[in-house]
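User: I'm putting together notes for a lab meeting next week and I want to include a structural view of one of the chains we've been expressing. I don't have a solved structure, so I'd like a prediction I can at least talk through. The sequence is below, exactly as it appears in our construct file.
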Amino acid sequence: MFKTNNLVKIALLTALTTAISLLVIIPVPAMNGFVTLCEAGIYLSAVLLGPAGGFWVGALSGGLIDILSGAPQWALFSIIIHGIQGLLVGYLYQKLTSSFKLSMSLVLGSASMIVGYFIATMILYTWPAAMASIPGNLVQTVFGSLVTIAMLKGLKKTSFNPAKEGN
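Assistant: Thanks for the context. Below is the predicted structure for the 167-residue chain, given as structure tokens.
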């Protein structure tokens, strides 16, 4: 299944994603809300570790963030949504061959998160609340995508090159 090396990477990236999501909260006054770096951690994990790593980091960090932030009603939804998000980004990043594979992976991963939380919000609350969740989730995923792209560009300039790392 997983080698010890990969389990350690998954555990470290889960802890990092959870920590940065709970500690780095950027207010967005226009939406009366905030964004975190959750997506950046999930996307980076998916690119570096592939679909399985992206799934586990997304699922584990998504659930932990909700439980630790006092929103346990969202935990099961977040486990499923962020797990699928990480799996999808990791899978597409490995399978697509175009020069836009990172962008396409991030766009489709973002779409899965927005749709997932739209459905979850309809289940937990109402149709209008689900509609109102779209702009905030869009900002969250765009921000996470931009941070991921910047982090990957920075990593490529170092001796650590994600494209050459094995899973």
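A couple of points you could mention at the meeting. DSSP finds five helices and two strands in the chain. The longest helix spans residues 38-68.

User: Perfect, that's what I needed.
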